[in-house]
Amino acid sequence: MIKRESYVEDILKEIREIINQMVPREARITDVEFEGPELVIYVKNPEAIMQDGDLIKNLAKVLKKRISVRPDPTVLLKPEEAEKKIREIVPSEAEITNISFDPSVGEVIIEAKKPGLVIGKNGETLRLITQKVHWAPKVVRTPPLQSQTIYSIRQILQTESRDRRSFLRQVGRNIYRKPELKSEWIRITGLGGFREVGRSAILLQTNESYVLVDFGIDVGALNDPKKAFPHFDAPEFQYVLKEGILDAVIVTHAHLDHSGLLPYLFRYKLFDGPIYVTPPTRDLMVLLQKDFMEIQQSNGVEPLYRAKDIKEVVKHSITLEYGEVRDISPDIRLTLHNAGHILGSSIAHIHVGNGLHNIAVTGDFKFIPTRLFEPATARFPRLETLIMESTYGGSNDHQMPRDEAEKRLIEVIHQTIRRKGKVLIPAMAVGRSQEIMMVLEEYARVGGFEIPIYLDGMIWEATAIHTAYPEYLSRSLRDQIFHEGYNPFLNEIFKPVANASERRDIIDSEEPAIIIASSGMLVGGPSVEYFRELAEDPRNAIIFVSYQSEGTLGRQVQRGVKEIPLIGEGGKTEVIRVNMEVYTIDGFSGHADRRELMNYVAKIKPRPERVITIHGEAQKCLDLASSIHKRFGLSTRAPNNLDAIRLK
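Predicted structure:
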């Protein structure tokens, strides 16, 4: 450890000498330190550096590091004084709605309805803010819906700033530690999600580093932890956890089968390192983890983790935008790319060693444009191994074209309305719900129907997070919001359900309605309550628009089971008779179907040497691997959980 610290100090000493030569003396540098994957220069006079627009770019080129310039904490105006000063500087027409501070990075976040007026002509107002308060201003457009999750995350980052800065410095020193060995080999082990859907987790090892890609839970298998949890019993994983040498966790997206067990690692002190995510993924996974914990509590089950463990996830998250390249260990460099699956979902491109090997892990992805997102990225600088999902990898897994799916959805809704029934659409709060909302909103806007659309569960809060990140949405949706001045998420046809009393009123009403409720697989959440109350009335309909995992209530209903036992009030089991109409419309899935999967391999650049198929039922993984090999002549594998594969 002392050797490693000494090595890092020697590197920093050399870096400081170069910086002192290149940065003007009037900047008054006070410190240079690694913080997470960045090199941070603290100065008392940031304006001296800002005057030269190319200085940071030139420094980064010379030092081969990502560089941030931050004001020295001693020159920062107190937050209350800084806020007062900012409001004096910025014209009232900008309509500032919130000002918050992140001391861990010396940043002030200014939310305004007209952000251009906060920035000013050629950035003049921003420079004046920096000059007067010394905090680094970050300007964001005021989200049209306020998110309690985003607010809570900002509060955590503000109150835990001292601990977070200490954490980031530890991470930085670990990343830039002296490599013990030259990178010569790479190995991956399937801890979960290999030849199955759920509990996704991949352990990537080099002879220098250990990194996890995803760490999820199979919510549909919670009665059997051996099937619900990733394989803690894998010998290499046991060793990594026991020795405390896990360098990082990369999370491809927020769904619980990819992120749901992260707080568990912190609860039992199995990990204390960085989690790399996009900003929307951080916010959405915190929302989903909190909801999962609360559902367990409400069901009288001891939660797998507590609120303070989710708080640790926030403190340990390091956010990356699409396309940003970051070192995450001495021999691993990470870039996240759009996956087109849900808000902030990413394909993780992992560069190992100095050109030794390049891996792309798709996570869940979509390779056609949708109402919400652009298709997944298929171009990378270099690529030798592709690890891809196979959820719909079977030879017959062809989803209905999107336009046909939308027509079918509207058709079923009209049939149900005509018989005075209610339509229940169980949907994941993140992704499918917003996609369905956009379809129904457009149809309602042109006069298709006027019945209310109720949003229950986390859907409204998840939608609020979507409105906070318009830059992650499709071009057409961004144009509609920014250039046409119309935000379809805000249509008055959408009615958030605030509590159980409102839910009961909707169920008891004789009026037709559309209900979009989480969870999408009828595993906990209000969708189960609606199902219980609506299932026996043949006027009603349930429409499945997303994948239903084996063992879930949703899969039983989808298969046509007519009598389903459910635990009711007081713990008594009651048999629910399913008389409602049951439909599956698979064209809305956020997963690539068989055609898209094959097309992705055809179009990916550069062509990989090897494809590994995961995240699908066993036969689908095998079928897809075989088809890719036959059509493209690539080496393919469909490994089992606990299989270890050497990539190099």
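Summary: The longest helix spans residues 2-22.
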